[in-house]
Amino acid sequence: MDLKAPRGTKDILPKEATKRQYLERAFEDLCHRYGYEEIRVPTFEYTELFVRGVGDSSDVVRKEMYTFQDKSDRSLTLRPEGTAGVVRAFIEHGMASWPAPLKLWYKLNMFRYEKMQKGRYREFWQLGCEVFGASASTADAEVIGLLDAYFAGLGLEGIRLEINSIGCPACRETYKAALRAYYEPELPHMCEDCQVRFTRNPLRMLDCKEDSCSRLAEGAPVQLDYLCDDCKEHFTLVRQALDKQGIHYLVNPRIVRGLDYYTRTVFEFVSENVGTQGSICGGGRYDGLVHELGGPDVPAVGFAMGVERLMLEMEAQGITLVEKPGPDLYIASFSATSADALALAASLIRQGLSAETDLMGRSVRAQMKAADRMGAGFILVLGEEEVTSGQGTIRKMADGSEETILLDAIGTYLKENKEGKP
Ligand code: HAM
C-alpha cells in the first residue's frame, strides 16, 4: 500500500500553517471587531441535513458528498459546507430566542468529492460568517463589507465583487416558468443532467458546465427581470448600502450559486488567479432555510471563503506573509547547564516572552549557528559560572552589542529591548 495522503487532501506543513494562522487570525480579529462570535459544529452530520438543507438538485448533494453508514447503520456525511450545520445548531439550541441579530463566524474544514484542479480540493478550509434574524438589506451589505475590509487589510487588490438577486420563492416561480419556456424546445439537445434539472430545478441548468448547455444559458432569461417589487427594493437598498461604503461591484445576472437555499442577494468575490471557477468566496441570503429545516421563520445571510483559494490569490499578487518569528532569546548551554537553560527559558516564556534552548546536546558553536538560523533576537551562553554567579552576558544578534545583566532581570531587559516591542 502506498502510504500517501488521499487524493484531493494535503498536509499543511509548518511553513504553510504559519501563513494560514496569519490569515485566520486576521479574519477572527476582524469578525470580533464587527461583533461576530465563533461557532464550531461537528465534522459530520446526518446525511438528511444536507439533502434537505443544501438541496437534492445541487451538484454538492447529487455528486460530491462523502456519505457513509456508521456501525449503527445511520447515514452520515462529512460536511461539504458549513451553513446547513450552523442552521441545524441554531435550531437545536433555540438560538432564535437569543438577542437578534445573532452574528456567527467559523473556521472549518469541508469535504467534497470533486475533480482535482488548481484551487480545488476534496478537503479544504472555509472561513465563513452567518447572520441570523436580520432581514434588512444592511445585513447583506455588512457581510459583504466585512469581506471587502478583510481583503483590503491583507493588501489584496482587484478581486471582483459580483452580485445578483435571485428573488424570493414567489417571484422565482414566475422565473422558473420563463426558464422552462426558454429551454423546452432545446431540451433534446441538452445533457442528461439538464434533462433532470428541467423538471427538478431549471435554475441549475444555468450553471451546467457542458459546452452546449452553457452556450444556451448565455441567452436565457435572467431572474433580475422577474423580481417582485419587494425583492427589487431589497436589491436596490443592498446596492445603495454598498455604494455608501465605497465598495465597487458588478451586477452579474448570471450568478445563481450552486446551492439551493439562496433567496434574494447572492454574491461572489472572483479572480482569475484561483483556478477555472475563479471564486474565492461565495454567499448570499437564505431566508427560508431555518424554517425549511424545522425551525422558526428566521431570515439569514452569510458567506464562506476558501482558504486555499485565498492563499493562491495572495501568492499571485506577490503578498508574502510573515514567516515564524525567531525567539526573543536563545540560551546556549553545556551538558551540565542544559536543565538550567531550560528552566530559564521556561521562566521567560511564563513572562510572555519567547525563548528556546538546545535539546540535542550540540556544541555551543552549533547552538550559536542554530540561534542565527532561527533568527533569535538575543543570545546568552549559560555556563556553570553564569549559573553560580546569577549573571550572564546577553548579546544582541542584530549588531553584536553585549551587556552583562542579572539572570533574574533578563525578562525585564528583553521586554524593554526586543525588536518590535509593544
Ligand atoms: P460555496 O460557493 O459552495 O458556498 O463555497 C464557498 C467557497 O469555498 C468557494 O468560493 C471556494 O473558495 C471554496 N470552495 C468550494 N469548493 C472548494 C473545493 N473543492 N476546493 C477548494 N475550495 C473550495 C458555500 O459553501 C456556502 N455555504 C457559503 C455560504 C455561507 N452561503 C451563505 N452562508
Label this structure with key terms.
15 helices, 16 strands, binds histidyl-adenosine monophosphate, alpha+beta, five-stranded mixed β-sheet, 2 domains
Question: What would you note in describing this structure?
Answer:
By secondary structure, this protein is of the alpha+beta class. It folds into 2 domains: 14-168 and 228-316, 2-Layer Sandwich (BirA Bifunctional Protein, domain 2), CATH 3.30.930.10; 329-416, Rossmann fold (3-Layer(aba) Sandwich), CATH 3.40.50.800. It contains 15 helices and 16 strands. The strands form 3 sheets. Strands 1-5-6-11-10-9-7-8 form an 8-stranded mixed sheet. Strands 13-12-14-15-16 form a 5-stranded mixed sheet, sandwiched between helices. α12 links the parallel β12 (329-333) and β13. It is elongated, with a radius of gyration of 27 Å. The structure holds histidyl-adenosine monophosphate. Histidyl-adenosine monophosphate is lined by residues 81-83, 112, 114, 119-121, 124, 126, 128, 130, 258-259, 279-284, 286, 302-306, 308-309. Residues 81-83, 112, 114, 119-121, 124, 126, 128, 130, 258-259, 279-284, 286, 302-306, 308-309 line the site of histidyl-adenosine monophosphate.
